Amino acid sequence: MYEPIRTGPSRRSVHAMADPGDFPHRSREEELDIQLAGHLAALLAVTDELGLGEVGDRIADQVARLRGTPPTRHTGRTDEPALALHRRAHALAGRALVVAASRADTAAAILAAEQMDAHTAAITAATTTPAAPARLVGAL
Known about the structure:
Blueprint: H1 28-50, H2 53-67, H3 82-102, H4 106-128
């Protein structure tokens, strides 16, 4: 009905702690670098999709600095509306800012904050622009 308690070095319990040498460990700084590079790479993909080349180059430089290799750039475009892309970019820049601030990476934090401001302005402009009044066919 039950499994007997395992004894001996060859029969380790599933509840036993793993040996420290069983798997590689990364430092907190390395983990934050990986997270920040990932958020910036995602922001780069959306930035490239929006066609913002100069800003994309700045983001790519930061990703290359963190990863040690240049990132893959997004070449294709989707049919997603620009407003949705700006909202996604704003959220990604916010995530990057949080991680950059926690690892005290001033260059990445400034870049992320600038991107948040730029995408906030784009979202505001897109949502506050009054729609053109509808014209009736044949009306003057």
